[in-house]
Amino acid sequence: MKIRHNKKRNTAFIYESLIKEATACVLKNDSKRQQKIVSIIKRHFASDTVLKKHLDCYRSLYESKNLDNRTAERILTEAKIANRLLDTEGLFMSQTELINDVNRELEPAVYNTYVPNYKTLASIDQIFSNKLSPKNSIILENQILRGMVTHIKESPATEQIDTVVVDSFVNKFNNKYSENLLREQKALLNYYIASFSDNSLSLKSFLNEEITRLKKTLDKSLSLPEIKNDQQMLMKTKAIIEKLDSFYKEEVGENVLLTVLKTQQLVKEITEDATEN
Predict the structure, then answer these.
(1) Boundary of a domain, candidates 99, 129, 148
(2) How far apart are CA 240 and CA 263, in angstroms?
(3) Residue 50 covered by a domain
(4) Which residue range forms the structural domain that includes residue 117?
(5) Do 261 and 180 contact (CB within 8 A), yes or no?
(6) Burial class (CB in 10 A: 0-12, 13-18, 19+), 42
(7) What is the CA radius of gyration of the chain?
(8) Could you tell me if residue 1 is inside a domain?
(9) Is the pLDDT of residue 196 over 70?
(10) Stretch 265-271: mean pLDDT
């Protein structure tokens, strides 16, 4: 079943692409471009915007995992209803404004950003379009539902193909950013990139250990003179520790990833300064 898909008007794809681009900017220390991306996201995906409401319809499907069949079917039904109730004309205009801002403030290459769950986002977009035949609609909906219910172990052949694809992307990513990344940052990103293939189990395990390590180092840093005697530095360090604490109860997402990446860099700098002194 081959269906034409305009990814520039796939709200979730554009959002995920912008998040990935912002992550890359953090790794490359490109704060100017990062701020542009953050500004676009805040402007177009604020809580009261039609794009945010549209994104929530997508998210309710591609972020829901390990559900029973009945719950998954109810969520799919409600997401389709919520999507139909959106202002179609307003949504189209908002998407056009977003596309124009991306083209003008960034560049069209953003649309080529690697998004691991692209096929799922494309399928959801087709379901929401209401342009499918009944047969094709049911086929795509069943594919989405399978991704929402309890994980079924794939065949060894499929797992092998997924591993090759993921390994290839990880290698390309490391080659591109290797000069800017710390060893622990590379490890985190490798787990993150591969997380879609194992339901994030390895990523969550790594994050638990890494957050514990970062917290211990930051706790010790509170006694360093340059931090202890600087009230602003002391407050910021304590705030970071509290933020890391909150991640134990939070789902692994872009916010967690970006914060941990920045904290890894901060801890590295603190450790080096302490060693030099």
Answers:
(1) 148
(2) 8
(3) yes
(4) 7-148
(5) no
(6) exposed
(7) 21
(8) no
(9) no
(10) 85
